[in-house]
Amino acid sequence: FDKNATSTSNVIHTIGKDSVYSFFFSSSFTAWVPALAVLATQTLCFVFFINAASLDFGADTVWKYSFSCPRDSQVCRSDSDVSRVGWFFFTLFGVIHLTPDMLNGLKLVWGASKHGFTKKGLHIFIGGCFLFTITALALYATVVFNVATSRSDVEMIFNTVVLLFVNDLDEKMFTSLRTINSEWLEKITSEIADSFRGNIKVDIQYAAANHELRDEQTRRIEQIEKKLLEKIMRVETEYEKLKTEYNKLKTEVKGLKARHTTKNIKIKTIQAIVIAENKKLQERSSRIRNRASNKEQG
């Protein structure tokens, strides 16, 4: 603990090299502005949640009672569905997200004494105090708000994630500044690294190269999607053509069936006529034979 605290090359890593809280080590006033803005925003958010979860009967709070007592019964029942699973995830998230920052804040405060009453020591002390205080406030707000409002495992996990997201605003602000003005950010981080005689620098060029790589991958994915879309369009076009040809063939088959049916009707009609004519011929032949036989007898 003491070795890490006194190592000046580890100071920026301790407070977070990807956090605007590292700007508290800078001598530039413009670098302190975003750091103080994030600190004030986080503090206001946590205070808002703490006030909203306070058990004040005269104020508009979000406190949810965990027990309900019917008037017709002397036994109160619990309305809370929070189980050990909810408390497990709450503890897990809190330990993973908050414990490192709290310990790092204490390390910075402890290590500041090694530099005495110097500008460097003052910057380390201020940065450590702010980091530890805002993390402790985040832990307190998370516990108080969950106790006041969480009545199920889902609510507890959701509230915990939201409050821990507020605790990560310093890193999100750093990422935004890197996107908005990478040159200014490189200038500030270089000045901080030089002032602490360390080799800890934010590799802006690496970040830019990584960003270009993501852009290239995105373009390749878009090209692949475009090709797939073209193939899908061609397949759909071929399908429509085949469907049209199928409908034409179906229509032709229906026409052939209709013509075949008509021909069958005509053939049956002709057969009926032939049968009728044959009957007539047979009758005529019978009459002729009868007449011939009568003449012979006469």
Give the helix/strand layout.
Elements: H1 2-6, H2 11-15, H3 29-52, E1 67-68, E2 77-78, H4 84-112, H5 119-149, H6 153-167, H7 169-180, H8 182-195, H9 204-297
Antiparallel strand pairs: 1-2
Helix pairs in contact: 3-5, 4-5, 4-6, 5-6, 7-8
Write structural notes for this entry.
It is a single chain. The protein has 298 residues and is an all-alpha fold. The chain is 77% helix and 1% strand. The chain contains nine helices and two strands, in the order αααββαααααα. The protein has helices at residues 2-6, 11-15, 29-52, 84-112, 119-149, 153-167, 169-180, 182-195, 204-297; strands at 67-68, 77-78. The protein has a two-stranded antiparallel ribbon. Strand 1 (67-68) and strand 2 (77-78) form a beta hairpin. The longest helix is centred in the last third of the chain and has 94 residues, at 204-297. The radius of gyration is 45 Å and the shape is elongated. The termini are far apart. Residues 1-8 and 198-204 have low confidence and may be disordered.
The number of helices is 9
Q: pLDDT average, as an integer?
A: 78
Give the helix proportion (percent range): over 70%
Distance between the termini: 153 Å
Unreliable parts: 1-8, 198-204
Silhouette: elongated
Beta-strand proportion: under 5%
Instruction: Give the strand order of the largest sheet, numbering strands 1, 2, ... along the chain.
Output: 1-2
Find the count of extended strands (DSSP E, 2+ residues).
2
Structural class: mainly alpha
Largest sheet: 2 strands, antiparallel
